Amino acid sequence: MKDRLLARTTATAAVAATASAAVSVFNSRFMPSLGTPEQNVTERVVVCIPARNEVSTLPALIGDLTRQRACTDLNVIVLDDDSTDGTAAAARAAAEGDPRIRVVSSGVAPPAGWTGKAAACAELARLADEDDPTASMIVFVDADVRLEPEAIAAAARMLRRRGASLLCPWPEQLAESIAERLVQPLLAWSWMSTLPIPLGNASLAPSTAVACGQFMAFDAAAYRAIGGHHCVASSPTEDLDLARALRRRGFSTAVASGAGFVRCRMYRSAADVRSGYSRWLWNEFGGPTGSAAAAVALAVVYVVPPVAALTASGSTRRLGWAGYLAGTVSRLAARRREVGSHFGVGDAVDAALHPVSILAFVGLVAESHVRRQRGSATWKSRPMPAPQH
């Protein structure tokens, strides 16, 4: 009976993993990408940067913004969100008097029920409207993002060419420590292996939206129409909820590969990875029941096959190897599309450890729920508020 159950489970997992690999390969070929703009962007673009204790990362981003090309009417607003590490002074020094860059300091705590990032972004949007209410494009960029000289113009051109209200160029997710390499590639893999992106981009269904808060380029009128960050004040996944809010109002959103133009290293240690993911994973699958179901499904599809390959015999063992290899291909194709020319041997090794990554992810989901129940989920030393419905 046990052997029969393992055989059936392995066969089912191999089929699911193969389907996942097929979607990843499809996206590796047909997912849209940022490209070098053929002409200048002349409309007014406002780049907004929320920054809390980012003295080690923000100056590099500001330097990148001073070197942007092909965007003739670019303005930048940096909000120092009650930092304690000299972020504002570092930002002003990096700007070197560039008149396009404005640095504003705030010592105000987020309003009750708001996450710190949503409150900072809402204030940035207010400042942008105060400076120039006629700006037609507003771009939110995280302080730890790095930009190539034509990144803003490339995103602006694609947004307008597609007629979208939101474009998220997915940054290359840099990963160096073991914890980062195990977990970070799963961000892009999670949607690149399950959703044919050209179809998702063409849909207005909120369920097929993909977004990344590290770089969000909005049509300013559409952003204002949904109430901006006010409509996602308490959300731990404000980027995805903004995309869904736009689609519910009939506005289109799209995700594209930012490889070669945008990159980001979100975390730098295992502690950072745990803290970062624990603040929002509890909300990712709709609650404890959904999280448990997702954890079981992931384990069955990506952990059972390698176990069967190593412990079973005959056809079950062969199916186990097939399922494991399909999972590896799925991960390889997604990572290759995400990082473009920066793909290397290390990425291939990480893909081979995909089952270990899945187990690490399941552990992070569990930890996120535990922290949520204990009220100990924080980000940037601030507690996460309860979502408002």
Task: Give a quick summary of the entry.
By secondary structure, the chain is of the alpha/beta class.
Could you characterize what this model shows?
- This protein has helices at 2-30, 58-66, 87-95, 116-131, 151-162, 178-183, 185-192, 197-202, 220-225, 238-248, 270-278, 288-302, 304-311, 314-339, 345-352, 354-374; strands at 45-51, 74-81, 101-106, 137-141, 145-147, 166-170, 172-173, 215-219, 253-257, 262-264, 378-379, 382-383.
- The chain is of the alpha/beta class.
- Helix 2 (58-66) packs parallel to helix 3 (87-95), helix 7 packs across helix 14 and helix 12 (288-302) packs antiparallel against helix 16 (354-374).
- The strands form three sheets. Strands 3-2-1-4-8-6-9 form a seven-stranded mixed sheet, with helices on both faces.
Topology record:
Elements: H1 2-30, E1 45-51, H2 58-66, E2 74-81, H3 87-95, E3 101-106, H4 116-131, E4 137-141, E5 145-147, H5 151-162, E6 166-170, E7 172-173, H6 178-183, H7 185-192, H8 197-202, E8 215-219, H9 220-225, H10 238-248, E9 253-257, E10 262-264, H11 270-278, H12 288-302, H13 304-311, H14 314-339, H15 345-352, H16 354-374, E11 378-379, E12 382-383
Helix pairs in contact: 1-14, 2-3, 7-14, 12-16, 13-14, 14-15
